[in-house]
Design goal:
There is one protein chain. The protein is of the alpha+beta class and 229 residues long. The chain is globular, with a radius of gyration of 19 Å.
Length: 229
């Protein structure tokens, strides 16, 4: 199953208040209760790289973002949208770089593929990038928090053990970069992926060290507050 699936109708969902009422009414089965919308943001544009088949640039220009407890949904004003399962979102972050404020996501295209090659096999899995750009920059934090909450409800079934779940949320104060020590070696694809991440992630500790050494105040191109999903 691809990480992004085209949809033409919105999934059924309820508000927090409606969810509280439904739970209080003691339904026959709690599985019948629709997912909850944690955040809804209108006037949002998106960018997918590589582009998504049957989803045009025009479709991506304007729409509404729905952060549901079940899936992440974007519905364009054109009537075409997409939804993403949370385990497919391997990283999401607030980006405040030169390209403008946005929510940056990495999507695992190999999710659900039986013979997919993942990080556990020593290879870098296929990735798709998603940028979510709200018209109102002040909406970035609420979107990010809602996305983090919903992602935590859907841990990767093939991911690490419970003892390693804390690694899914990275404290940027502990951010480290690969330096090739201890006979470690990255594949060519891994090095390319690392170079891309380092180009968008702002590491204040690394920047301070570089400034002390060469006085160069031109830090990273983009600043992000990073969390993995």
């Amino acid at each position: 199953m691809p990480s992004v699936n085209i949809i033409n109708t919105l999934p059924t969902f309820v508000s927090k208040e409606e969810h509280t009422t439904l739970v209080g009414s003691t339904p026959n089965s709690f599985n019948d209760i629709p997912p909850v919308v944690r955040h809804k943001e209108e006037n949002v544009s998106v960018k997918l790289d590589p582009p998504l088949e049957n989803f045009s640039d025009q479709d991506a220009l304007q729409g509404t973002l729905y952060v549901l407890t079940s899936v992440l949904v974007f519905m364009s004003t054109s009537g075409v949208g997409f939804q993403i399962e949370y385990p497919a979102i391997t990283l999401h972050a607030v980006s405040r770089g030169e390209s403008g404020p946005s929510i940056y996501c990495q999507l695992d295209e190999s999710l659900g593929q039986e013979n997919a090659t993942g990080a556990g096999d020593g290879e870098f899995s296929d990735m798709r990038e998603l940028s979510i750009v709200p018209q109102n920059p002040e909406s970035l934090e609420p979107i990010f928090e809602a996305l983090s909450q919903c992602a935590s409800l859907h841990p990767d079934p093939h991911g690490p053990d419970d003892d390693d779940l804390d690694d899914a949320f990275v404290d940027e104060s502990n951010f480290e970069t690969f330096n090739g020590d201890e006979n470690e070696e990255l594949s060519e694809v891994g090095r390319a992926a690392l170079a891309h991440l380092e180009s968008i992630i702002y590491d204040p500790h690394k920047l301070t060290t570089q400034n002390d050494e060469d006085g160069d105040s031109a830090g990273g191109d983009e600043q992000v507050e990073e969390k993995k999903s």
